[in-house]
Design a protein that fits this description.
The protein is of the alpha/beta class. It contains 13 helices and 15 strands. The strands form four sheets. The protein has a seven-stranded mixed sheet with strand order 2-8-7-6-5-3-4, with helices on both faces. It binds pyridoxal-5'-phosphate (PLP).
């Protein structure tokens, strides 16, 4: 049989999601009988809460089995408005809400709704892997704004200003951030807002999907900063806070014209997300966030434990991530080294591949996130797995020799 394929040039140019690729490789190794610890995926290791499951079962019995309105059921959009007001001080009306099949689709809708070919989209790095691919698919040009671990991987107002051009249309960032775990404070966002305000045809996706996994005790929503509400698209979802990744529900609040454009896009691609998932998400967004803080508390303990363990590994530079469930160490000092069998470790990808082969620990290299000198470790795993993974990392990295 011919092995020739006819995949479009567009898709051939698109990289495979690095996090999913690493997950696939570790699954394959596991299937071959290897004792793999995968710290590569961005998924809570909890199950959805019981009240969510009950709401979903009830929705089945109540026959939420028909096509829902493209932008989501009105009752869910109203519940989301209540959530935005309760948790974020954001006043949206149901026509400004669009519910999608995960925040991934939400963000993709926004990119297609706003970006013309050649438009520049600012991506403070490190950024979530899919942002750049979405921008490229839409014909936009990702403009990467590098940050430093010393500044907790955050951009300053000056860095934002100096990257804005006539072609800038959009910026996409997450806080708490995947992959760095960084959290922008209200003051930091206020400084960025001054710059955003100066260009009214510039829009910002504030991806707040890790909102409830924030150890600072304070989550700031960009849209609440006076003067920029009409330029902000607030993205959120139930995947992370409520451990509902498989329910596939994300949503946005945005100026009505943007919400309408996203709905139009979604109407041609997927239509509304699953009706029973929407009812499960309604129960989640209406619940007090404190009902799921047991997950955040567990993540915080694991973060502290892992920071201590990783701190014992020579060659890793660490900061203290204030949210999400990732640590993003800088591994520059381990680059330019040689393995026992003479293989060169020149990039964080080389380092992650070496670790996977040597000790069966799966991480994700930083280049996928626009920060090639770092890697991402997810601590959404059991204490035993994390302790074991840290020991394996120490062993593998300790064997690397500096090249002469
Ligand atoms: C920063 C960020 N945004 C959006 C998403 C998409 O989440 P979902 O599509 O599961 O709602 C993820 C998932 O990993 C993420 O980390």
């Amino acid at each position: 049989m011919s092995t020739k394929t006819y995949v479009s040039d567009l898709l051939n140019r698109l990289p495979e999601s690095a996090t999913l690729a690493m997950a696939r490789m570790s699954r394959e190794l596991k299937e071959d009988g290897n004792d793999v610890i995968s710290l590569s995926l961005g998924e809570p290791d909890f199950n959805a809460p019981d009240f969510v499951k009950e709401a979903c079962k009830k929705a089945v019995d109540d026959d939420y089995s028909h096509y829902p309105p493209v932008n989501g059921y009105g009752e869910l959009r109203e519940a989301i408005c209540c959530k935005f007001l309760r948790d974020n001080d954001l006043v949206y009306t149901p026509d400004q809400i669009v519910v999608s099949t995960g925040a991934k689709q939400t963000i993709s809708n926004v990119v297609y709704a706003l970006v013309n070919p050649g438009d520049e989209v600012l991506l403070p790095a490190p950024f979530w892997v899919s942002y750049a691919a979405m921008v490229q698919l839409a014909g936009g040009v990702p403009v990467i704004i590098p940050t430093q671990i010393e500044n907790d991987f955050k951009i300053t107002a000056e860095e934002l200003r100096s990257n804005i051009s006539d072609k800038t249309k959009l910026m996409i960032y997450s806080s708490p951030c995947n992959p760095s775990g960084s959290v922008y404070s209200k003051d930091e966002l206020t400084a960025l807002a001054e710059v955003i305000k100066s260009k009214p045809d510039f829009f910002v996706v504030s991806d707040e999907i890790y909102e409830h996994i924030n150890y600072t005790g304070e989550h700031a929503s960009l849209g609440t900063i006076p003067g920029i509400f009409d330029q902000v698209i607030t993205v959120n979802g139930v995947s992370k806070a409520f451990a509902m990744t498989g329910y596939r529900i994300g949503y946005l609040g945005a100026p009505t014209w943007i919400a309408k454009a996203c709905s139009k896009m979604q109407g041609q691609v997927t239509s509304a997300p699953s009706g029973v998932s929407q009812m499960a998400a309604k129960a989640a967004v209406l619940a007090e966030p404190s009902s799921v803080f047991y997950m955040k508390n567990a993540f915080l303990k694991r973060r502290d434990m892992m920071l201590e363990k990783l701190g014992e590994i020579p060659g890793l530079k660490l900061n203290v991530p204030e949210g999400a469930f990732y640590i993003f160490p800088n591994c520059m000092e381990l680059l330019g080294t040689l393995t026992d069998d003479g293989q060169e470790i020149n990039t964080s990808s080389d380092l992650c591949m070496y670790l996977l082969k040597e000790e069966n620990v799966a991480l994700v290299a930083g280049d996928a996130f626009g920060a090639a000198e770092c890697f991402r470790l997810s601590y959404a795993a059991s204490d035993e797995m994390l302790v074991d993974a840290a020991a394996r990392m120490k062993r593998a990295f300790g064997k690397l020799k500096k090249q002469n």
